From TrEMBL:
Residues 7-96 form the Glyoxalase-like domain. InterPro entries: Glyas_Bleomycin-R_OHBP_Dase (IPR029068), Glyoxalase_6 (IPR041581). Residues 184-209 are annotated as: Disordered. This is Glyoxalase-like domain-containing protein. It comes from the Bacteria. It comes from Streptomyces tunisiensis. Transmembrane segments: none annotated. Signal peptide: none annotated.
Length: 209
């Protein structure tokens, strides 16, 4: 079974972006990496990253930390039919969903991140699902042509697919956009470019490998 080892965000200022992600989310550089890029991009880049937590208090803590570090609020943290969450946009332009499926706190606030999910907005969910399945990704959940979630190895970035317009509605932004996605996936299944132009690269080999 293949999965996403990490994602690389392509940003104008890696130093500033690294400071933001450390202050806002406490992210390490194992699963979310940064590299410089001046490729043209405008509007919606077609994807979001989600930080999944155990309870609303953890969501609130990261939401406040993100805003304090310079993020823009796209949706406030609040209850919904599926749980609790909010949406922010980092200074580099990446959209982050901060979510939990639980509506009540059950313990002290920890700001611990249980899972990172990459949600790709695609034109044809069924076709893109087939594309990734042919490259060794195993479907975990599938709801026709609306949503697909692939299984992932422990510690990996979970990959999901959603209709582009629906993803824009969820995040509260217009889906108009063009140019670079400003993200690269790393997986043993790579290198390849998927039907919507998302690039997957082979993972970097360590010096002793």
């Amino acid at each position: 079974m293949n999965s996403i080892d990490s994602v690389t965000l392509e940003v104008a200022d890696p130093t500033a972006a690294a400071r933001f992600y450390s202050d806002a989310f406490g992210l390490d550089r194992e699963r979310v990496r940064l590299r410089p890029s001046d490729e043209a991009t405008s509007g919606f880049r077609g994807f979001t990253l989600s930080l999944v937590m155990s309870q609303p208090g953890d969501v609130d803590a990261l939401h406040r930390a993100a805003l304090d570090a310079g993020a823009t609020q796209l949706k406030p943290a609040e209850k919904s039919l599926w749980g609790y969450g909010g949406v922010v946009q980092a200074p580099d332009g990446t959209i982050w969903q901060l979510v939990t499926s639980t509506k009540k706190n059950t313990g002290p606030v920890t700001r611990a991140i249980d899972e990172i999910v990459l949600l790709l907005g695609v034109a044809d969910v069924k076709a893109t699902k087939q594309f990734y399945a042919e490259r060794g990704f195993t479907v975990g959940k599938s709801f026709g042509g609306k949503y697909v979630e692939f299984k992932g190895d422990p510690g990996s970035v979970k990959l999901s697919l959603y209709k582009r317009k629906a993803l824009g509605k969820v995040t509260g932004v217009s889906t108009e956009g063009s140019g670079s996605h400003r993200i690269a996936l790393a997986s043993p299944a790579g290198p390849f470019t998927d039907p919507d132009g998302y690039v997957c690269e082979a993972p970097e080999r360590k010096p002793d490998e």
